[in-house]
Specification:
The structure holds 2 protein chains of 2 kinds. Chain A is mainly alpha-helical. Chain A has helices at residues 2-29, 34-48, 62-71, 78-86, 176-211, 216-230, 233-244, 268-306, 309-316, 321-333, 335-338, 341-347, 352-359, 364-374, 377-405, and strands at residues 90-97, 103-105, 111-118, 121-126, 137-144, 147-158. Chain A has 2 domains: 61-165, no CATH class; 176-405, MetI-like (MetI-like fold, Orthogonal Bundle), CATH 1.10.3720.10. A 3-stranded antiparallel beta sheet of chain A has the order 1-6-5. In chain B, 60% of the residues lie in helices and 3% in strands. The chains are: A mainly alpha, B mainly alpha. Chains A and B meet through helix 1, helix 6, helix 7, helix 8 and helix 9 of A and helix 8, helix 9, helix 13, helix 14 and helix 15 of B.
């Protein structure tokens, strides 16, 4: 068992690398990527400033292009770029233009000077004390199309996804890690509550439906199940907003948002009520996605088990029905449900942005969706990586849950 | 516990056989079809969907702003019919002597009908049942933005379900959206099956390194946040029908291949396969003629649910603005507009397309349940 999970964990490593490589490749390789965006912006700027020739075609100076390429590490080959992004290859943390022999500020109140004792050889010295060499600084030649290469003073460091360095957001000018940490609790609360509700309500309802197979309760709840099958959570959310949000019909619930504007002024109890008030509709939307499948799965699986021989034996021994259903049959019926538990981890991020957009909740989903619209690549990357990790973890959690409810399953 | 109520789990196959003893033998498929027919909810849903989908191809002559027939100075024109068969249906207003026509603009057939009636000079226009098109917008003068259902302001004709933010008719878009949604989901499902079936089959039958490799591919693919990736790619490349189909199929084939793999894996150890191998049947024949027909059950029962998934994904992507390129009539796009103006109460923009989607998905789910039951040899029996 332990062996199996260790092997699973090891297999997850290549899965992680290849999945992230695909994500990275798509975003970086597709036309209209970050570099092209910036170049286009630069072109527009120079055009506005009245530069360019008569046809309106503006040329960006090659040195600017080269600088931008360096900023995105596009001067490196694709795989190096991928490794830099992961944090397995050194990135240029600081990158200054420098003139040989001239002092230059390098931050932290320090000044550096670059000397060239022989061609192709550089020494980086403290400008105040020219005998002392500065550690960690290197000089690289920047290739410029059609011009002589220029020296750049760079400081390298390992910084990437694996060292929890996600870069900065262009939109918010804040580290992406902070942005995500801010919004994660919001998405997590909805995900967790939806998950708990779905599993408790659905399993219980599935059991009742199975015991009442063909009866009035079974028929009545089937209506809810079919609604759940036929309408995605966000769409149901939209319908509920129209019906109960006050725009057209009833004015019972708030039109989205996570809390009231005066939330901070409220007393503790009122705060709780306010949260709950804002929670109801989105939570229904979150839950409904799982609702139909889970209920039907529980019902069918329990029905199947109830027609098995061991249940007959249990009845023949004279056990009470309650014990047979809740102890004997139920445990075996939960096996297929346990195998789905892992999918829920992904739910925390993967399907939430539709609901967050509908209800205007400032969670992870909305953040990442707006990042795509604004081409805020660092957020997009961070979100994609988090999703990949969660999905892989979810697959493993499913296996774990499966072996927990069914000791007969021996993973090899 | 009452023993008298105890039932033996009935084996429906044996039962049906004994019932038909002496009569013409019934094939498995016929038996399934009969069982499907007996499940009324699924059976009727199936026919409703077939008829609705077939009818939706006639939409250009049922719901259109172009006339079915125009009789002008002894000649008859059929603009809507030309729409139906995909020919250019453009006629300028001047061609029919439309008085209100702007130079070079397309004829406004609704006005033209009124004009001909007023003139009473032997010219006439026959409009389709519902005379509003899905993409005519404010550029036609009488169209209003956000007209409520059945509301008629400034002399404009009332619309069944109102109009949207650029004056397009909601009912018309909803109707055309049905055809678009189903066609889209069908194409995606078929492409996904065309990829998933051979992959799963090869992987299950041959096992070994092919299987290991394919399982890795599936695992990696499953670890990708697919809706998110699709949005990124569409945002970068710009929306188009082909791109959307290929992207959704690129993720849709996974579940098909998983189902197929399991089936082929199980079937290959059966005696009939061993028999076929031992008398030297070539591998491709074993795969296609011997195993495949036996392995189709799970993917047939999965098909309606693949359609449900396809429609849901299209509506979601359209809602986010990364679906079919405008002005394609799409349900998701209408919901998006409706939610943007939610405080102002344009409820029909949200409720109309979502009701259409709900009904479509509900019917499809009913069909799916019916098919699944028809293919399921198990009948549950309760002891006690």
């Amino acid at each position: 068992m332990t062996e199996y999970f260790i092997r699973r964990l090891l297999l997850a490593v290549p899965t992680f690398f290849i999945s992230t490589l695909i994500v990275f490749g798509i975003v970086q390789g597709a036309p209209g990527g970050p570099l092209e965006q910036q170049l286009q912006q630069l072109k527009n700027q120079t055009a506005e400033q009245g530069g360019g020739n008569s046809i309106g075609q503006t040329e960006i100076p090659p040195s600017e292009v080269a600088k931008l390429e360096r900023y995105y590490h596009f001067h490196e080959p694709f795989f190096v770029r991928y490794l830099i992004w992961l944090g397995l290859w050194q990135r240029n943390e600081l990158d200054f233009s420098v003139t040989i022999g001239e002092a230059r500020k390098i931050g932290g109140g320090k000044r550096a000077v670059v000397e060239q004792p022989s061609p192709g050889q550089f020494r980086v010295l403290d400008a105040n004390d020219r005998t002392k060499e500065l550690d960690g600084w290197e000089v690289e030649m920047m290739e410029i199309e059609g011009e002589a290469p220029q020296p750049r003073l760079v400081k390298k460091a390992y910084a990437g996804i694996l060292t929890f360095y996600f870069g900065e957001s262009f939109q918010y000018n804040e580290p992406v890690g902070d942005l995500i940490a801010d919004r994660f609790p919001v998405s997590f609360q909805f995900g967790l509550i939806g998950f708990i509700l779905a599993y408790t309500v659905c399993i219980y309802m599935g059991i009742l439906k199975a015991l009442n197979h063909g009866g009035a309760f079974d028929f009545g709840t089937s209506v809810i199940v079919f609604v759940g099958y036929s309408i995605p959570g966000w769409a149901l959310g939209a319908v509920m907003l129209v019906l109960f949000g006050g725009g057209s019909f009833l004015d019972i619930f708030p039109l989205g948002n996570f809390q009231s504007e005066n939330y901070l002024e409220l007393s503790f109890f009122d705060k709780f009520l306010d949260r709950a008030y804002h929670f109801i509709l989105p939570t229904i939307a979150y839950t409904i996605a799982q609702f139909a499948t889970l209920t039907m799965l529980t019902k069918n699986s329990l029905l199947e088990n109830l027609s098995k021989d061991y249940v007959r034996t249990a009845f023949a021994k004279g056990l009470r029905e309650k014990r047979v259903v809740w102890v004997h049959a139920l445990r075996n019926s939960l096996i297929p449900i346990a195998s789905r538990i892992g999918g829920v981890i992904g739910l925390f991020v993967a399907s939430s942005y539709l609901i967050e957009l509908v209800f205007n909740i400032d969670g992870l989903g909305k953040l990442s969706f707006q990042a795509i619209l604004a081409r805020d690549y660092n957020i997009v990357f961070a979100f994609a990586v988090i999703s990949v990790i969660l999905l892989i973890l979810g697959q493993m959690l499913s296996d774990l849950a499966l072996s927990f409810v069914n000791p007969r399953i021996r993973f090899k | 516990m009452k023993e008298s109520k105890t039932q033996k789990p009935d084996t429906s196959a044996a039962k049906t056989n004994s019932k038909n003893a002496g009569a013409k033998p019934v094939s498995v498929m016929q038996r399934r079809w009969r069982k499907f027919k007996s499940i009324k909810r699924g059976y009727y849903s199936f026919w409703i969907m077939i008829v609705m989908y077939a009818l939706s191809f006639l939409l250009p002559v049922l719901v259109n702003n172009k006339a079915l027939m125009v009789h002008y100075e002894g000649e008859t024109y059929f603009p809507a019919l030309r729409d139906l068969i995909g020919l250019s249906s453009y006629y300028s207003g001047e061609q029919f002597g439309q008085t209100s026509a702007v130079q070079g603009n397309e004829a406004n057939y609704r006005d033209l009908r009124d004009q001909f009636e007023a003139e009473d000079s032997g010219n006439w226009v026959v409009m389709p049942l519902y005379p509003f098109g899905p993409i005519e917008n404010l550029s036609i003068e009488e169209n209003q933005v956000f007209a409520a259902p059945f509301e008629s302001k400034n002399d404009s004709r009332p619309r069944l379900l109102g109009t949207d933010d650029v004056g397009r008719d909601v009912f018309s878009r909803m109707a055309y959206g049905f055809n678009v949604s189903i066609s889209f989901a069908l194409i995606v499902a078929i492409v996904a099956y065309l990829i998933g079936v051979p992959f799963g089959a090869l992987s299950g039958y041959f096992g070994g390194w092919i299987d290991i490799l394919l399982q890795r591919v599936v695992e990696i693919w499953l670890a990708l946040p697919f809706l998110f990736l699709i949005i990124i790619v569409v945002a970068l490349l710009g929306p188009s029908f082909t791109l959307l189909v290929s992207l959704l199929a690129a993720f849709g084939w996974l579940s098909v291949s998983i189902l197929m793999r399991a089936e082929f894996y199980r079937e290959k150890s059966m005696d009939y396969v061993a028999a076929a191998v031992s008398i030297g049947v070539p591998t491709h024949k074993i795969l296609l003629k011997h195993i495949l027909p036996n392995a189709l059950v799970p993917i047939i029962t999965y098909f309606p649910f693949a359609i449900v998934a396809g429609i849901t994904q299209l509506v979601s992507l359209d809602f986010l603005g990364f679906g079919l390129p405008p002005p394609a009539p799409s349900w998701g796009q209408m919901v998006g507009v409706g939610l943007k103006y939610i405080t102002t109460g344009y409820w029909w923009l949200v409720l109309a397309p979502l009701t259409a989607m709900f009904m479509t998905l509900l019917l499809t789910v009913f069909i799916g349940e019916g098919v699944r039951e028809a293919y399921d040899p198990k009948t549950f029996s309760r002891l006690r």
